[in-house]
Amino acid sequence: MPSDLYAVIADPTRRQLLSELAAGERSVGYLVEAVGVSQPTVSKHLRVLRDAQLVSIRAQGQKRFYALESGPLREVVEWVATLLPHPEAPEEEAKAVSEPHGVGQVPESSVGTEVASTPGAELEHGELDAAGLDAAGRRGNGVGRTMEQVTGRAQELLDRLAKQRFGRRR
């Protein structure tokens, strides 16, 4: 994966152009209005994106239409996914933290008490935090879960873009 790709997508104007192109093929004039910068600036950024193979161009008369090419972005998503924890990792970690303390087993001394009927009640407060559980024994919606959702959504968008056909019809 070209390391230049990260420099290309690091620019906020280029990211905005990519976002506009994610909705479909767009003319340069449309992109100028949508992004709110001058035509030469948009053209300069589109050239950088084209050189990085992130966009393709189609000429129709004197107009130029650009379309998003998702291939290089898929590589970025796949690489970022390697940095994220495996979806099962938090559950396995919670299990490992809680097993020595008998989670899932109700202590004999607490049978019939309100505390024993609360999920996760067998764990101390610090152990609940370490297991990623709230006081009711529910798994929170923390950063890991949010990243899972974002990664899944990004993959859906890339898959949808890969199915779209751009360019001349034959």
UniProtKB/TrEMBL annotation:
Keyword Transcription regulation: yes or no?
yes
Q: List, in alphabetical order, the Gene Ontology terms for molecular function in this entry.
A: DNA binding; DNA-binding transcription factor activity
Coiled-coil intervals, chain numbering = none
Pfam name, any one: HTH_5
Under SMART domains, the record lists: HTH_ARSR
Q: Which UniProt keywords apply?
A: DNA-binding, Transcription, Transcription regulation
| Biased amino acid composition, Polar residues | 107-116
The highest taxon in the source lineage is Bacteria
* Domain HTH arsR-type span(s) in chain numbering: 1-91
Q: Where is the composition biased (Basic and acidic residues)?
A: 89-98
Region annotated Disordered, chain positions? 89-143
Q: Which InterPro entries match?
A: ArsR-like_HTH (IPR011991), HTH_ArsR_DNA-bd_dom (IPR001845), HTH_MetalResp_TranReg (IPR051081), WH-like_DNA-bd_sf (IPR036388), WH_DNA-bd_sf (IPR036390)
Q: Which Gene3D superfamilies match?
A: Winged helix-like DNA-binding domain superfamily/Winged helix DNA-binding domain
Q: What is this protein called?
A: ArsR family transcriptional regulator
What is the native source organism of this protein?
A: Galactobacter caseinivorans
